[in-house]
Amino acid sequence: MVITKRHAVVLKRLYEKGEEFSVSDWEAFDRGTLWHLELAGLVKPVGVKMYDLTFSGNILGELLTNMIKEGVLKDPEEWDDSFRWIGSEVISMIRYSKLAQSRVKGEIAEALEERGFVKEGTLTPHAYTLDEIYNASQPRIVVNSQVAEYLRKMVEGPGESSKLPVGENELFQLESMRMIAFSVPKSDVYALTGLGQQIRAALRKGLVVTDEVILDELVLDTVAKACEGKELSDFEKNVLLERGLIDWTGSLHPMAEHLYLAWKIYRKGPYLMTPAFQISEDEARLLMLIEKLWKRNEQDRDVFPEPKQIEEEVDWEWKRKDLTVKLALYNLEGFGLLRSREYRDGARRTLVYELTSYGEEVLEDQKRKLRSISATGVKSITMTRKEFAAPNVEWYEQAKKEGLVSDAAPTSSGLLYARLSVEVERKPLITNVEMKVLRKVPYKAGIFVEDLDLSEEERIALDSLEAKNLVEILPTGLVTLTDAGQLMKRALSAASDDVEAPVTPLVIRLLQAIRTHGGLQMREKRIRINPESWKAVEEEVGVDPETFDDALNLARISRFISENALTEAGVALLQAVDELAKKEYPWAEF
């Protein structure tokens, strides 16, 4: 949805008319404006060259008129031609501010106040009305040859808005269809949304472009029907055949995968999560070291990557002050890059680490260029898959610095870490400092980073919590707990402040094994385990006896386990891990 001066003038005129209207005598410019409003779901055709406002259009017209009468907004005729009253960045600012209990600060407050949606640092009722209108409106999907060519020649982003190809009319159409979004507060950065990226991918893979409509709701519905194996009519087969989506045998072209995902986003709802990922330079060096130790093991059986040997082999200046080598190993396992298991060296049984397939991918990337990867850089890519989100300038620059974005598109490294942020099975390490920061973030409402009054160490911990998908830091500087973060906060409510790290991947593996071999007691909200089942639990965890005992003691100290049962806190921890494992639609990469 986008409303500039030209759109507001037409909308106000139609609202004041209050009935169906003919456009037979309209100029081409006004008809183009009307088309943008139709794509946004604000007007609808009701006959030959006859139109009417939709329910959402009527409410928006009423909102515009009332704001003008109240003096919080000038008449559209007095607006500057470039003024964007409503756009993806405005919707983002309002949504983010609602999470802050309507509190607004800085440039965001100035931008929304200029549009009549903030007064004295607080969202007005008008902002809430606009948000409801946006939710209620149903945009159309109509990709004609001009929009298709624009999508083909542009880059998906994130990128600088100033470098977009010239094409104001095409951009208005894309934004009306929710296929492109701009950053807060000044639209300096753009990105195609998940819907826009998937449709562009189909076009780049060969979707046939003609002078007619290339893609609309009917085509998307037909693609979905074909992808789900349902029988197609001759008409539907022809629709797909004309666009190169099937061949004469009825087999689907690979580009149909992208349109099927576009259909899911359009019909079932957009992506809601902003998954992140993180690895420091020190942790990347540990991956290299573990690979080296296994290679040496081929010639010398006394050399292997157990924690003690790994620590002894760290011969570089350790930069990550918030993690020891031991905690960094836990952290790498928590991100799915390492796995730990028992290793038998003669009569001795110890713990060793080995790279997972994801760890090997990260190792190859880090060998090309050793550097830290931040949650901010990764989410600059993943957030674009949502409905109206683009990274702000600082995040975009961070992503470029880390080599995740270049020339207004994700690099191969960017695509790797974005994929890992979704695919890896997380068993997160939670350090003492991270636990304390997590406790500071309100359970439901958001809080601004500056209001948390964090030390440097705590600010690093906050970024780490975001990489673990337990908090989300929004472009306005607001911090919110994710669903998994809420559960983790509950799980840590009784944990001791004296423990170096109350949650480790091994503690999580232990609790998961107890859940497998125990039984839920509904009244107590606990999972109990019979004493004779502990042997099976130890075997499933798969580590040496000393490591198992250490994990068991830590789980007891952190109050996740009583004598023979998971406590309510332990159950909440498992629920948090289960929540982290939830996935949205699988992303189709181009």
Strand order of the largest sheet: 2-4-3
Q: State the separation between the terminal residues, measured CA to CA.
A: 26 Å
Mean pLDDT: 94
Task: State which percent range the strand residues make up.
Answer: 5-15%
- Level of helix content? 40-55%
Radius of gyration: 27 Å
List unreliable stretches of 5+ residues: none
Tally of individual helices: 27
Could you describe the largest sheet, including whether it forms a barrel?
Answer: 3 strands, antiparallel
Q: Say how many strands there are.
A: 22
The shape, in one word, is: globular
Structural class comes to mainly alpha
Give the arrangement of secondary structure elements:
Blueprint lengths: L2 E2 H13 L3 E2 L5 H12 L3 E5 L2 E4 L1 H16 L13 E3 L1 H12 L6 H9 L3 E2 L2 E2 L1 H12 L5 E2 L1 H9 L5 E2 L7 H9 L3 E3 L6 E4 L1 H11 L10 E2 H11 L6 H9 L13 H13 L12 H17 L9 H7 L11 H10 L3 E8 L2 E8 L1 H12 L6 H8 L10 H9 L3 E2 L2 E2 L1 H12 L8 H9 L6 E2 H4 L3 H12 L3 E3 L4 E4 L1 H9 L13 H13 L1 E3 L4 E3 L5 H8 L3 H13 L7 E2 L1 H13 L10
Antiparallel strand pairs: 1-5, 2-4, 3-4, 6-7, 8-12, 9-11, 10-11, 13-14, 15-16, 17-19, 18-19, 20-21, 21-22
Question: Explain this structure to me?
Answer:
By secondary structure, this protein is mainly alpha-helical. Helix content is 49%, strand content 12%. The chain contains 27 helices and 22 strands. Strands 2-4-3 form a 3-stranded antiparallel β-sheet. A 3-stranded antiparallel β-sheet has the order 9-11-10. It has a 3-stranded antiparallel β-sheet with strand order 17-19-18. A hairpin with a 2-residue loop joins strand 6 and strand 7. Helix 1 packs across helix 2 and helix 24 (505-517) crosses helix 26. The mean pLDDT is 94.
